[in-house]
Amino acid sequence: MSDASDASDAVSTPLTMFSRVAASAAWKRLNRLMPALAAAVILAMGFVLIAVTSAGHIPDVWAHTYRIDGIVNGDVLARPVDSTSILHSGSGNVGGCVSRDWIRFSIDHYDGYDPAAVNADFLERYGTNSTSTANTTCVDTPYNNAAVNSPAAYLPQLAAFAIGATATLTPGTTYVLAEIIMLLVYAGCMFAAVAALPRWRLPTALLLVSPPLIFRYSFAISADSMAQALCLLFACLLFSCMADPRAGNGRLTALMTVGVLMGMSKFTFTPLLLLGFLALIPWHSAVSESTAVPSAADAARA
């Protein structure tokens, strides 16, 4: 009996080792593919959400749309305007010159969800106002909510609006194009976020593909979309630098660059830049240990 059991153990031991090696290899392969898998899931869910979300059914989307088109038309900095909107019906509004096509598009697609849209009679009231800078292509339009946002917060959407203006696309086509470009940028940021992590890739990827994060702000025409993408990327880069005491200057530079862009996208996120100093703690600890002067006891032991 003992000989039979020894023979069985001798056979099972290599099989167990082989299964462990195979499992380890499969896990490493999955870990390498995790950034691409997360980005693919985000893209798939994002395209579905773009298809089912009607134009204008996102918070403050019309204010952001007016702001982006105002930047394209030359109003990089918001300025006082005499016109009003549903939300901003009083005086003292700020905004810029928005194309008439976009104003008509927002009026046609206003469903009562976002009151930042202008009134239905906006063009009749202000389109021929001699006191404004209205012309044949654009009209002064208020967008107080979005006036403080830096153009850096709208880089993906600005690219889409510039393409739309150059190719004379309709506002509806440009609107969808802006959502698609934003989704591609968002998925790229999430790919980089997961790829930056030396470990914890699976739980991080599961968090990043959760519907509450992807819904709306993975593709929306909004400053919050870029801010959310950069904030998540900044967090992953920060954990990556803290987990690896040997993080080089390149990774630290990437961390601070993303942090600056995050602050430009959402000024309220600027204090988060201070968290970047946490990445220096393990780095300086490793340097201090390697350059420490040996004690007398250590010298005697040597």
UniProtKB/TrEMBL annotation:
It comes from the Bacteria. Pfam families: DUF2142. Keywords: Membrane, Transmembrane, Transmembrane helix. The chain crosses the membrane at residues 36-58, 176-197, 217-240, 252-281. This is DUF2142 domain-containing protein.
